[in-house]
Structure formats: structure tokens, C-alpha cells
Amino acid sequence: MMVTRPLHTLPKLCSQSPQNGSSGSKVLVHFVNQSGMKSSVFVTEGESLLDAVIKKNLDISGFGACEGTLACSTCHLIFEESVYDKLEQTVDEEIDMLDLAYGLTKTSRLGCQVTVNCWMDGMTVCVPQEIKDQRGKQEAQSSK
Ligand code: FES
């Protein structure tokens, strides 16, 4: 017997990247760097966001210093709440590193620990901009 599901319960299909010709599922991810510059890239499903930043050579200063070994927090990314709520649970080591991260928010995660899935297609992740703001404040105070 064939089981049918209403259309609204079917998972969203990933985009197929037209530019590289590979047959793997591609997920469109928008990255916003420290300067507010947006880069939109297709990421292969199953890759981490750190892998994506490195492979696509995105302009994110100092990102992924420990290469995904959970020994830094330079891959800190802020997620949209609707996406964050669906991410896999954080492990204790990630929570420890997040505690050290600049600009921590309630939707912060480490990019090396988040694997891209089809349902994330079209999401935007942001690098915290507080570091720049803090420097700006210090420079403003020191010039007084
Ligand atoms: S790259 Fe260092 S914790 Fe993610």
C-alpha cells in the first residue's frame, strides 16, 4: 500500500548548483562577515560551515583558527532563531568555547560544529561585529 503525505510535510528540496556541475545536493548559505559584507555560496550538504568558509575562501578574518578542533571560538556564527531552534544539540566542549566568544548571543554556535543540511537552504549566518565596535569605542575613548 502506498502512503501519501500532504505536500506541506515534505522536506524542502535543496538547490542544485548550476555552476559546478556536481550531482551532490547544494545548499544556499548567506554569510555576513565582520564588516557587514554578504557572500552567498552553495555548500555541499554534509559539510560544516567552517569547511564552507575555507573552501569558498570567504573574506572572514581569522575564522577557524583551530581548524575545527574545538580549541578556539573564532568560528563563532550567529544564526536566525528559526534555524538555531532546529540545530543539533551543543556538546559541552562547544559550550565551553562559546563562553569565551565575543558578542555571544542566544542563537550563537560554532561554525565548525554545524553541518549543513538541506533544510537550511537560504539561511543567513552572521559573524559577530562587536569586536570591531569594541575597538571603535576604545579608539574613541583614547582620543579624548
Ligand atoms: S574552528 Fe576553532 S572551535 Fe571552531
Automatic annotation (TrEMBL):
The keyword Chaperone does not apply. Its main location: mitochondrion. One of its GO terms (cellular component) is mitochondrial matrix. It comes from the Eukaryota. GO terms for biological process: P450-containing electron transport chain. PROSITE patterns: 2FE2S_FER_2, ADX. Residues 27-131 form the 2Fe-2S ferredoxin-type domain. InterPro entries: 2Fe-2S_ferredoxin-like_sf (IPR036010), 2Fe-2S_ferredoxin-type (IPR001041), Adrenodoxin-like (IPR001055), Adrenodoxin_Fe-S_BS (IPR018298), Beta-grasp_dom_sf (IPR012675). The keyword Metal-binding applies. GO terms for molecular function: 2 iron, 2 sulfur cluster binding; electron transfer activity; metal ion binding. Keywords: 2Fe-2S, Electron transport, Iron, Iron-sulfur, Metal-binding, Mitochondrion, Transport. Its cofactor is [2Fe-2S] cluster. It is found in: Mitochondrion matrix. Gene3D superfamilies: 3.10.20.30. Belongs to the adrenodoxin/putidaredoxin family. This is Adrenodoxin, mitochondrial.
